[in-house]
Specification:
Blueprint: H1 2-143, H2 148-153, H3 158-233, H4 238-262, E1 286-289, E2 294-296, E3 299-300, E4 304-307, E5 313-315, E6 320-328, E7 332-340, E8 343-353, E9 360-361, E10 366-370, E11 380-387, E12 390-392
Antiparallel strand pairs: 1-4, 2-3, 4-11, 5-10, 6-7, 6-9, 7-8, 8-10, 8-11, 11-12
Keywords: Coiled coil, Signal
InterPro entries: Cell_wall_metabolism_enzyme (IPR050570), Dup_hybrid_motif (IPR011055), M23ase_b-sheet_dom (IPR016047)
GO molecular function: metalloendopeptidase activity
C-alpha cells in the first residue's frame, strides 16, 4: 500500500502540470481569438448602420418625391381651377345674354301679336268703310240723275229745291267724313303694317343672334368639360379631399362673416323667423344631398343639393337684398340674399346670375339659372339658409 501511495505522488504532479498547461493553452487560444470576434462584431454593426442609413436616405428621397408630386398636383389643380373659373364666367356671360335675348324675343312676339290684332281690326274697319262709301256713292249716283244746276235755276218749287240742296249738303258732308276716316284708317293700317314687319325683322335678327350665342355656349361648355377632365386626372387622397372641402367651407364662412359686418339692416326686412314651413323651394328638383348628411370625413352638408336641369330659373325664397353675386371657389357662381334679422339664403353652382349686389328682390323673383359651375359634374342648385352665420335646416322653412 505504501509503495502504491509513493508511486501515485509523481503521477499527481504530472497530472496537475498537464492540466495547468492545457488550461494555459486554452486561455492563450481564447485571448488570441478575442480581437477577431470583436472586429467581426464591429464590422457587422458598421454594415447595419450603413444599411439603415441607406434605407433612411431612400425613405427621405421617397418623401421628398411625394412632397414634390403633391406640390406639382396642387399647382396644376390651382391653375386648372383658375381656368375653370374663367370657363364658368364665360358660360355665365353667354347664358345671361341668351336669357336677355329670350326676354326680348318674348317682348317682340307680344308686340307682334298686338300689332297683328290691330292690323286685323283696321282691315275690318277699312272693309266696313269701303262698304259704306260704296253705298253712299250708289245713292249719290241714283239721286244725281236730277241736275243740281237745274234745281237751282228752277224757281217754281223753291221749297223742294231747298230740301234737295240740304240733302245734297248732308250727303256730301257724310261722304267727306267717311273718306277722311277711310284715309286715316289706310294711313294707320300702313303704319301698323310697317311696324309689324319691322318687329318681325327684329325678331328674326334676335333668333339669329340667339343661335350664334347658343353655338358659343356649346363651344364654351366643351372647353369647360375638357378643363374638368384634366382636373379629375389630378387625383386627391381622402385627406387632401377633406382639406380641400374644409378650405372651401372656411372661405365661404369668411366671406359670409365679412358680409355680415357690412350689412346695413333695412327696416322693412323682417327675416324668416315667422315663416317656417311657409316658403317655397328655390327650384323644383330631386334632393341629392340633405342637410346634416355626411359629406367627407367629419364634414357634413350645411344645406341641400337639389338636382335640376341647366337653365331652369332659381327663385328667391323671400324678399331681400343681394349681398354677394360672384364666383367663389368650390361653390361656383354664388348669390347670397340678406332677408334681415340675421337671416341669409345662399344659392350656388348657378349657370349665370341675374342680379347684382345691392339689387332688391321680391319673393319668387328669378335671381339665377341652374348650372354646374364650381366643378360640378351634375347640374343642380346648392341651397343654404343661415341665421347669424350658422347653417340651419332649410326643410324647417321650405315646404
Amino acid at each position: 500500500m505504501r509503495k502504491n501511495c509513493c508511486l501515485s505522488k509523481p503521477w499527481r504532479k504530472i497530472k496537475k502540470c498537464y492540466i495547468t498547461r492545457i488550461s494555459l493553452l486554452c486561455a492563450s487560444l481564447f485571448l488570441v481569438n478575442v480581437p477577431v470576434f470583436a472586429a467581426e462584431k464591429i464590422d457587422a454593426n458598421e454594415k447595419a448602420q450603413q444599411e439603415n442609413k441607406a434605407k433612411l436616405e431612400n425613405v427621405q428621397k421617397a418623401i421628398a418625391k411625394q412632397e414634390s408630386n403633391i406640390f406639382d398636383t396642387n399647382k396644376k389643380r390651382s391653375t386648372l381651377e383658375k381656368e375653370l373659373k374663367r370657363d364658368d364666367m364665360a358660360i355665365a356671360k353667354v347664358a345671361r345674354a341668351i336669357n336677355n335675348i329670350e326676354k326680348q324675343l318674348s317682348e317682340r312676339q307680344q308686340q307682334i301679336n298686338v300689332l297683328a290684332k290691330q292690323k286685323q281690326q283696321l282691315e275690318q274697319e277699312k272693309l266696313k268703310q269701303e262698304t259704306l262709301l260704296a253705298k253712299q256713292l250708289r245713292s249719290a249716283y241714283t239721286t244725281g240723275q236730277h241736275d243740281y244746276l237745274k234745281l237751282l235755276l228752277n224757281q217754281e218749287q223753291s221749297e223742294k229745291i231747298q230740301r234737295t240742296v240740304s240733302y245734297y249738303h248732308y250727303l256730301n258732308k257724310a261722304r267727306i267724313e267717311e273718306i277722311e276716316n277711310y284715309q286715316a284708317t289706310i294711313a294707320q293700317l300702313l303704319q301698323v303694317s310697317t311696324e309689324h314687319q319691322e318687329q318681325i325683322d327684329q325678331l328674326e335678327q334676335l333668333k339669329i343672334h340667339q343661335n350664334q350665342q347658343a353655338q358659343l355656349l356649346k363651344s364654351t361648355k366643351a372647353k369647360r368639360s375638357k378643363t374638368l377632365a384634366n382636373l379629375s386626372k389630378q387625383l386627391l387622397s381622402s385627406q387632401q379631399q377633406l382639406a380641400k372641402l374644409k378650405s372651401e367651407e372656411n372661405n365661404l364662412n369668411a366671406a359670409l362673416q365679412k358680409l355680415s359686418e357690412l350689412i346695413q339692416a333695412e327696416i322693412n326686412l323682417t327675416g324668416l323667423s315667422k315663416l317656417k314651413r311657409k316658403l317655397s323651394w328655390p327650384v323644383k328638383g330631386r334632393m341629392l344631398h340633405r342637410f346634416g348628411s355626411r359629406k367627407q370625413g367629419y364634414l357634413t352638408w350645411k344645406g341641400m343639393l337639389i338636382s335640376a336641369p341647366i337653365g331652369r330659373q332659381v327663385h328667391s325664397i323671400h324678399n331681400g337684398t343681394i349681398l354677394f353675386s360672384d364666383w367663389l371657389k368650390g361653390y361656383g357662381l354664388l348669390t347670397v340674399i340678406d332677408h334681415g334679422n340675421g337671416y341669409m339664403s345662399l344659392y350656388a353652382h348657378n349657370q349665370t346670375l341675374l342680379k347684382s349686389v345691392g339689387d332688391r328682390v321680391e319673393t319668387g323673383e328669378p335671381i339665377a339659372l341652374v348650372g354646374q359651375s364650381g366643378g360640378q359634374e351634375q347640374s343642380g342648385l346648392y341651397f343654404e339658409i343661415r341665421h347669424r352665420g350658422k347653417a340651419v335646416n332649410p326643410k324647417l322653412w321650405c315646404k
